[in-house]
Design goal:
72% of the residues lie in helices and 0% in strands. It has a domain at 3-82. α1 runs antiparallel to α2. It contains four helices and no strands. The chain is mostly helical. The longest helix is centred in the middle third of the chain and has 36 residues, at 43-78. The protein is elongated and about 60 Å long.
Length: 116
Protein backbone atom coordinates (compact mmCIF):
# COMPACT_ATOMS: atom_id res chain seq x y z
CA UNK A 1 0.00 0.00 0.00
CA UNK A 2 1.41 3.39 -0.92
CA UNK A 3 1.26 6.52 1.23
CA UNK A 4 -1.66 8.09 -0.68
CA UNK A 5 -3.82 4.99 -0.20
CA UNK A 6 -2.96 4.94 3.49
CA UNK A 7 -3.98 8.59 3.82
CA UNK A 8 -7.32 7.88 2.10
CA UNK A 9 -7.95 4.99 4.50
CA UNK A 10 -7.06 7.26 7.42
CA UNK A 11 -9.44 9.93 6.12
CA UNK A 12 -12.30 7.42 6.00
CA UNK A 13 -11.47 6.21 9.52
CA UNK A 14 -11.34 9.80 10.79
CA UNK A 15 -14.70 10.67 9.26
CA UNK A 16 -16.23 7.55 10.82
CA UNK A 17 -14.62 8.34 14.20
CA UNK A 18 -15.92 11.92 14.03
CA UNK A 19 -19.44 10.68 13.34
CA UNK A 20 -19.23 8.21 16.23
CA UNK A 21 -17.94 10.87 18.61
CA UNK A 22 -20.68 13.31 17.62
CA UNK A 23 -23.30 10.61 18.19
CA UNK A 24 -21.82 9.72 21.59
CA UNK A 25 -21.77 13.38 22.63
CA UNK A 26 -25.37 13.88 21.54
CA UNK A 27 -26.59 10.66 23.21
CA UNK A 28 -24.71 11.40 26.40
CA UNK A 29 -26.18 14.90 26.53
CA UNK A 30 -29.71 13.61 25.95
CA UNK A 31 -29.28 11.03 28.74
CA UNK A 32 -27.96 13.73 31.06
CA UNK A 33 -30.99 15.93 30.37
CA UNK A 34 -33.37 13.03 31.11
CA UNK A 35 -31.95 12.52 34.61
CA UNK A 36 -33.53 14.10 37.65
CA UNK A 37 -32.27 17.42 38.93
CA UNK A 38 -29.64 17.45 41.69
CA UNK A 39 -31.92 19.64 43.83
CA UNK A 40 -34.38 16.82 44.63
CA UNK A 41 -34.25 14.28 47.44
CA UNK A 42 -32.22 14.14 50.61
CA UNK A 43 -28.56 15.10 50.97
CA UNK A 44 -27.42 11.67 49.76
CA UNK A 45 -29.52 11.94 46.59
CA UNK A 46 -28.26 15.45 46.00
CA UNK A 47 -24.65 14.32 46.49
CA UNK A 48 -25.10 11.49 44.01
CA UNK A 49 -26.62 14.00 41.58
CA UNK A 50 -23.57 16.25 41.90
CA UNK A 51 -21.23 13.27 41.41
CA UNK A 52 -23.16 12.15 38.32
CA UNK A 53 -23.10 15.69 36.95
CA UNK A 54 -19.33 15.88 37.48
CA UNK A 55 -18.83 12.52 35.73
CA UNK A 56 -20.94 13.74 32.82
CA UNK A 57 -18.85 16.89 32.42
CA UNK A 58 -15.53 14.98 32.65
CA UNK A 59 -16.72 12.46 30.08
CA UNK A 60 -18.05 15.23 27.84
CA UNK A 61 -14.70 17.05 28.07
CA UNK A 62 -12.79 13.89 27.06
CA UNK A 63 -15.09 13.27 24.11
CA UNK A 64 -14.73 16.89 22.96
CA UNK A 65 -10.93 16.60 23.16
CA UNK A 66 -11.04 13.42 21.04
CA UNK A 67 -13.28 15.19 18.55
CA UNK A 68 -10.86 18.11 18.38
CA UNK A 69 -7.95 15.73 17.67
CA UNK A 70 -9.95 14.07 14.86
CA UNK A 71 -10.97 17.42 13.35
CA UNK A 72 -7.38 18.65 13.46
CA UNK A 73 -6.21 15.47 11.71
CA UNK A 74 -8.82 16.00 8.98
CA UNK A 75 -7.54 19.56 8.65
CA UNK A 76 -3.99 18.30 8.26
CA UNK A 77 -5.17 16.01 5.44
CA UNK A 78 -6.74 19.01 3.67
CA UNK A 79 -3.59 21.11 4.13
CA UNK A 80 -1.28 18.27 2.98
CA UNK A 81 0.56 18.21 6.31
CA UNK A 82 -0.99 14.93 7.50
CA UNK A 83 1.41 12.24 8.62
CA UNK A 84 4.29 14.55 9.51
CA UNK A 85 5.59 14.24 13.06
CA UNK A 86 5.37 17.47 15.06
CA UNK A 87 8.51 16.57 16.97
CA UNK A 88 10.89 15.21 14.29
CA UNK A 89 9.27 16.73 11.16
CA UNK A 90 9.63 13.35 9.47
CA UNK A 91 6.90 11.06 8.13
CA UNK A 92 4.93 9.15 10.72
CA UNK A 93 5.04 5.39 10.21
CA UNK A 94 2.18 4.20 7.97
CA UNK A 95 1.23 1.40 10.35
CA UNK A 96 0.98 3.92 13.20
CA UNK A 97 -1.20 6.24 11.12
CA UNK A 98 -3.51 3.37 10.19
CA UNK A 99 -3.79 2.34 13.86
CA UNK A 100 -4.19 5.88 15.25
CA UNK A 101 -5.07 8.21 12.36
CA UNK A 102 -5.26 11.30 14.60
CA UNK A 103 -1.72 10.87 15.91
CA UNK A 104 0.61 13.83 15.57
CA UNK A 105 3.80 12.01 16.54
CA UNK A 106 5.91 9.22 15.12
CA UNK A 107 7.20 6.56 17.50
CA UNK A 108 10.50 8.40 17.72
CA UNK A 109 8.73 11.72 18.22
CA UNK A 110 6.57 10.26 20.99
CA UNK A 111 9.67 8.90 22.73
CA UNK A 112 11.42 12.28 22.43
CA UNK A 113 8.39 14.13 23.80
CA UNK A 114 8.03 11.63 26.65
CA UNK A 115 11.70 12.04 27.55
CA UNK A 116 11.24 15.81 27.94
Amino acid sequence: MDREQAIEICKMKLIEKKSNLLNRIRNQHQEFLKRDSTSRGDEGDQSMGVINEHQHFVSHHLLRNQLLEVEQALGRIESNSFGICEETLEEIETARLLAIPWTRLSLEGAELREAK
